[in-house]
Amino acid sequence: MKRSELCSRRKSSVGIASSLVLPGRRTCPQVVLMEALSCGERRLGSDEEYAAPAVGVSLCDSAPLVWRMQDLRAVRAQGLVGALLGSLPRTPRQNGRLGRPLLLLPEEEGLLRERRAAAALPDRCQDWGGAELRQKHEEEEKKSFEEQSVLALEDRKLALLRAMTGAESGATSADEALRRRLQALDQNFTFPQSAMAVQLSTARAGLSYCPEARAFLQAYGPTGAEPRCDARYQVFRDLRGRGFYLTSAGKFGGDFLVYPGDPLRFHAHFIAVCVSLDESVCLLDVLAVARLGSNVKKTVLLCSPGPDARVCYTSLQWSGMI
Amino acid sequence: MATIISDEFDGHQDPEESRSSRQTPGIMADQNNTDDKGKFYSEILSPSELFAARSRSHKIPVRGQKDFFPDDSDEQKQRLEHSLNEHWSLLSEERVERLGNLVNGQWIPSKQIVELQSPAGKFWQTMGFSANGKQCLLPEEALYLMECGNLQVFHQDLPLSIQDGYEKFLSANTVSLQQYQVFGHLKRLGYVVLRFDPSSESSSYARQLNLPQSSDRAGRQLKRKRSLSPAPSSTPTATCSRAEAQEECSTEKMEEDKCSEGEEDKKLPEPPEAQSSADEGGGRSWWMMDVLGDSDKDSGHGSKSGSSCWDFSSISFPDLGSTSREHFPSDLAPPDPSLLPRDLKVGFCDIAPWRQKINLRQVKMSANEQKREKYRRRWDVNKNREVRRCRNWAEYQELMARRKGKREGRPAHLWNREVTPLHDPTQPIATGELLEKISVIKPTHLLEGASRLKDADDWRICFNVYQPNTVADFKKSNPGKPYSRMCVCSFDDPVPDLRAIKLLAYQSGDIPVVIAVVDYGDISFYTFKDFQLPTDVYP
């Protein structure tokens, strides 16, 4: 049956629940189509949020990645979740929690572009390899080494002092030895190079060396990877506008997983499958996706963008005998 | 005595010490925001922070239970804030390592590899290769080690960040971002992942050549085990010979018939035309002449109206064996002289001595036998429609032969042609063999026909994956057989068709190919397994 027929069979206004029962044999459960109830969420305010500073996006192998912490927070503040790809610095050898970079869905990228909230970061520092940069780097390393050795000395002294004051009525010979060690510390302390702590930065740190940083920001134009199909993008925009959080749902056989709130705190309620209105839907596909949805305890949502920028939603729920 | 402090940095700190000297549990990169007014990037740690990073916890906070539905309650807001803060603090932690623990490498864009400047650590057992006397790493291996905090790569004397690594090392020429995701995922699980080199795999043919084989066996091996042609090749020739024999017989017969009227009874079924025409022609004329000549018959009503048969019901043949009282004349009257040849005088015949010679005793039969005898007396072969359709003795013989063939399962019309039935029912055969003979759909192996396929660009095996428990005795020079091979694609790509699967299986040999499907951060692994439909064959 055509998707448009399905939509026109019911009242199309949001919020009214009506049910469409597919005729079926008595023995098998009937699939009940219900109008999707709109979630009691807040709609995004119009323009206040978009006045925030632009999110810096870098391209890696033609995929949009977000590296800087401020950019990650800004992306989250706009309600876009993305997907983390890298190892977590604290525990790199596990797959449970991943770290930066954040990969943006093509729809998220498109949305940022539409809101003019993204900026393309330059892919390399202009002065890389220049003598000036190298000199700066060496100087900073030296400074860091000096500071760290001072800190190390203080730390060692503190440790010895604590060991001394701990033994109040203890043997004075031990105390004497410690006092002597303390005095010797100032002369004989060495902080080896190999003990110095060094940072392996995640985001590119080189730009701090470049003078005219802001001039490099360009308006984020189309990267050539347009949102895969228009239907998906319309649905994404509409659902995001209603306050839902969306992530990709390839594993669930759909286009998006729809969360009522931040995915950190809530489970997904819907699996959104985007179908254009004039596409005919094979009944077997509908049954397959309904079956899948019921197995993972999520409601399947068939989404089709309509002509007047409105999106028609149909939810599938597996019900018992009617 | 000079005290060297290095030992304090190695192990874990005394908890008492760490608590006293440091307040913050972790170092957040964006605490620097206030300091870097002039800087563009603000995630550089100050030396004090670097120093303090020694005492970081290495545990990840466990995620609690999620809520079901947002209800704008303060509790939920608090929990969300707490989760988000935890999330940000984990993500913003920067990698801090002791210089002594880091291996240094240099990126060489022309060769797209990383050359190590200091000796490799424990990772050398499973990663890297030697070139020109130097230890080198492939770009994906180098990036993984950078993410683990074991390697620092320099380019033009400046250290590369992880972002630089991603942007420089990953490209369509080396390893794509999706392939690196799969690589990283597997390495973090502990597998040993090496690049796949198609030329290093010996083809199945080459492997066959390595086996010790005599030339005879090789020849015999080339023979196809399954053939679609019917089994014995003797059948077609037998039918041919029989057909030939038939033709010979019939021509022989025709000549013979023309000469004489008597012919031998041949066992083989003969074509009816040649024989019957000769037979009928001669016989019919003889009858007709007689009937037309003498129209006298016993019963009086004749078959003069054109029928060439004698009316046997009107001609009485004396039944000397009959025991019924009616037929008991003492002597037989002589027959009608018209029925006899000329010049033959027949007198009355005394039946009595003949009857003595006949055994007139009643046969003793059981009830069943009597019943059967009754049916047999009633049965008339002429009542059968098919028999009545036979116009002469030859046709009747054919009918008998056909019936016999049907009874025994080898009807002549099926077996006398070029295309014979698949199997002779009179021959014994095992059920399994019979099933295989009649099977319309035969099972095929995945690699059948795969060698003929031309290489396609879109489906390529990327990595060899080896089990984690073999790491202890893993040798890069002789890795052995991989556990599986990886092919990377995304959910936007089409599902691999049979052609692609055959190609991948052929490239891989006898090792299963796993297809890793990347979905923006999620990776799912799929593989196709061989399956055989069970057949119910009881020997």
UniProtKB/TrEMBL annotation, chain A:
Q: Which CDD domains match?
A: tRNA-intron_lyase_C
Q: Which GO terms describe its molecular function?
A: nucleic acid binding; tRNA-intron lyase activity
Q: Which residues form the active site?
A: Y259, H267, K298
An annotated GO cellular component? tRNA-intron endonuclease complex
Task: Please give the chief subcellular localization of this protein.
Answer: nucleus
What UniProt keywords apply to this chain's record, in alphabetical order? Answer: Lyase, mRNA processing, Nucleus, tRNA processing
Q: Where in the cell is it found?
A: Nucleus, Nucleolus
- The keyword Transmembrane is annotated on this UniProt entry: no
Tell me yes or no: is tRNA processing among this UniProt entry's keywords: yes
Its EC number(s): 4.6.1.16
Q: One biological-process term from Gene Ontology?
A: tRNA-type intron splice site recognition and cleavage
Which positions fall inside the TSEN34 N-terminal domain?
A: 56-120
Sum up the protein's function in the record's words: Constitutes one of the two catalytic subunit of the tRNA-splicing endonuclease complex, a complex responsible for identification and cleavage of the splice sites in pre-tRNA. It cleaves pre-tRNA at the 5'- and 3'-splice sites to release the intron. The products are an intron and two tRNA half-molecules bearing 2',3'-cyclic phosphate and 5'-OH termini. There are no conserved sequences at the splice sites, but the intron is invariably located at the same site in the gene, placing the splice sites an invariant distance from the constant structural features of the tRNA body.
Q: How does it assemble?
A: tRNA splicing endonuclease is a heterotetramer composed of TSEN2, TSEN15, TSEN34/LENG5 and TSEN54. tRNA splicing endonuclease complex also contains proteins of the pre-mRNA 3'-end processing machinery such as CLP1, CPSF1, CPSF4 and CSTF2.
Give the family from UniProt.
Belongs to the tRNA-intron endonuclease family.
Put simply, this protein is called tRNA-splicing endonuclease subunit Sen34
- Which organism encodes this protein? Haplochromis burtoni
